[in-house]
Amino acid sequence: GGEKRAPGEERGSRKSRRSKYFQKPSGGGQVPLGVRGCLVTCPGGWEGKCRSEILNVLHEYAEKIGSKEVQEKPTPDDSKERTVDEMLKAEVGELKNLDQAKFWWHDIGIQGAVFVSFRDNAPPSVMDFVQQIVAEVKRTGQSKTRHTMRILPIEITCFATLEEIEKTFCSHVGKFFPEGEGVKPLKYAIDYEHRASKKMDRMAVIEALAKNVPAPHTVDLGNPDITITVQVMKNACCLGWVKEYKELGKYNLQRLAELAQEKEEERSAGAEPATKQDGE
Q1: How high is the pLDDT of residue 78?
Q2: How far is CA 251 from CA 43, 106, 182, 254, in A?
Q3: Residue numbers of the chain with a pLDDT score lower than 70
Q4: How many CB atoms sit inside 10 A of residue 165's CB?
Q5: Whose CA is closest to 249, among 174, 141, 176, 177?
């Protein structure tokens, strides 16, 4: 009746301890409300694999930009007999470490989708953090994930009613579209999607957000500086602000890697005739 572990994985090992810091399940089949994080898509049935690999990627990039390491508790010396009080203190310490996790995954009950929330100690800008991950895939042509398709930065989640979406958007819009003299005008677009939810009036949502973007910022569907993403899922709405949305393939890691490989193959094919001539 003990805890199941992977073959060769001992209790208290670095792997088993580390997994606890990133994989705190939460939810009950719903997107959590009032949080920031990222929405990740994958082929249906691969949610577990997707969750594991994306948590590893998030942690790796958090370390790259200098986020503080979660302090791992040393493995206790089981050779010494401990009192009940000592064991209780050890358990409390373990829970405190768990509470320091930067990223939590949530069971949202939607096939082909995973939500990861960013805690207070995670990188401060979800938009810039996720863009860095996606841009590297485009630059290198290599994705560090096999099952992850898209990864979208989510600035805030809220209840999926038109009134609540507009209210939540208004409380965050100034962070991305500042007002005042000397402010650089930004071009923007709004991208709306929904899944596993009652269909909302798409244009009503877009108009409710657009009317609250202050001047001097303007709509430009062809070449926006920032795309506002709206993802309605069940009874929740995920609002995100995304840079280079079209240039980075709508943040589809698999597609970006495929495109980079296709370009490389084209370059190689173009170089072949010259190579043959040289050898003749």
Answers
A1: 44
A2: 15, 21, 31, 9
A3: 1-28, 66-100, 271-280
A4: 21
A5: 141
Give bridge partners of residue 191 from the DSSP assignment: 229
pTM value > 0.85 = no
Q: What is the C-alpha separation between 61 and 128, in angstroms, rounded?
A: 11
| Nearest alpha-carbon partner for 106 in 153, 37, 20 | 37
The sheet carrying 218-219 orders its strands as 156-159, 236-243, 226-233, 187-195, 218-219
- Separation between Cα atoms, residue 89 and residue 78, nearest integer Å: 15
Give the tokens for residue 82.
Answer: 């401990």
47-106 pLDDT tens trace: 999 999 999 999 999 988 764 443 333 334 444 556 666 656 655 554 445 455 789 999
